[in-house]
Amino acid sequence: MNNYILIGMPGSGKSTVGVLLAKALGYLFEDVDLLISRKAQKPLQRILDEDGLDSFLSLEEQTGSTLSAEHTVIATGGSMVLSEKAMKHLKTMGKVIYIDVPFKEIERRVTNIKTRGIVFHPNETLADVYRERKPLYERYADITVSVKPDSTIEDTVEMLMETIF
Asked: Is this model's pTM higher than 0.70 or not?
């Protein structure tokens, strides 16, 4: 139970903040999206395009539900919360921290929705994804850090450090 698992929307800064948080804590850092990409031997968007949404979600669930780590900050993919099995496992590994960024800021940050490897159904918008996932992020979070639109990455890491200690 000595890990910190970051959850939140695509564009919330999980990977960027995670690296800096790990450095500040003297922890290792693991990015689940990179693990998935390595397993599939292709970028996330190609997995979605070539293998389909269900295949991606299955691979994500398998990766999240079998992950093993010690003294690690783990950045999950934004869709990890869609898997109850994976989230139950991750919660046994440490504290789950929801990086809560207002939708308007997510919308500003995520400009490459069609190429970024974001899980969404046909005809779904980023707003639809946000509405579906926000209650799941809140449900699984042990800690929520609310990021203001004008916050810097450093501000977010500082808020996380204050919350952890």
From this structure: yes
